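Reminder to self: keep the SMILES exactly as supplied, no canonicalising. Ligand is NAP.
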Amino acid sequence: MNKILEGKTALITGSSQGIGKALAIGFAKLGANVIITGRNQENMEKTLQQVEQQGVKGIIIPGNVQNYDEVQNIIAKGKDKFAHIDILINNAGFSRLKPIHKMRVEQFENILKTNVLGVYNFSHAIVPHMMEIGSGTIVNTGSAIIDSPGPRWSAYSMSKSALLGFTESLGIELKGNQINVNTIMPGPVDTPLFRMGMTEDMIKTIGPMAPEDLVPYYAFFASDQGKKVTGLNVDINICKSVIEMGKNSWSELKEIAKEKLKPESFKKAKKYRKLINFLLQFNK
Ligand SMILES: NC(=O)c1ccc[n+]([C@@H]2O[C@H](COP(=O)([O-])OP(=O)(O)OC[C@H]3O[C@@H](n4cnc5c(N)ncnc54)[C@H](OP(=O)(O)O)[C@@H]3O)[C@@H](O)[C@H]2O)c1
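Structure tokens returned for the bound complex:
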């Protein structure tokens, strides 16, 4: 797809590595200037180098998503550099998988402060700017784990579940301001976070997604096709299974999807139809 994000600026949290880094490079390829943020300077410099190789501008503004003053500083410096920030990707996050009786309350607080407060901090600080420029796109990184409950996931799952209600409510609240708010919920993605404590055999068995493959899911919401879509919590596994049906558009695959998917999943797929059309066009 061509430079559909040309002229826009994207602020991507957690872009020093993993999914955020892939989104930074992917958005740069689509023409966006990128504000890279995280805490590891060396990793952020590596991202910046690859962003600039795409012929766009990038800037590193470090900070901790848990700290509101640092968040405001990132946004202020980003505005100084680019005048407008059109896209916010709330992606920074982490997990510690432990049974509840082994998780210290401080560790749980740290998960919440990153995965929940961090999203709130950035959204809170950027919305006045997006209102001022008359439009904006916010996309959060959730997780499909909330639909696949299991032991040791309770703290992380609780933090990612919080994004559902946030997304739906804020989506409605900001509709009149031309600001769309959505959450992408990936399954396993091959990143340093995912690889923690895994052997190569375990990774092979799980078969995680490549982080680069997530780019169109996020880019859609900043594109002309997706700009009016808001309040969605996107289950990537449903999108992937629909795309694998091998058709060219939602209208061609709708009946097959109805037959093959569970009724609940089909209901969700119908809500994703514009995104599905975009994904089908993206790599052509
Ligand atoms: N990988 C998966 O399988 C998977 C699946 C579903 C959802 N997710 C979600 O996807 C997002 C990205 O995860 P990932 O797999 O790419 O993990 P990752 O490789 O560990 O990257 C996490 C990023 O978040 C940043 N970060 C973490 N805590 C931060 C803080 N307090 N302040 C500022 N930045 C912070 C890190 O930056 P620094 O290290 O520079 O601080 C890093 O850039 C997370 O929200 C995660 O929950 C991941």
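Points to follow up:
The chain has a mean pLDDT of 97.
The two ends are 7 Å apart (CA to CA).
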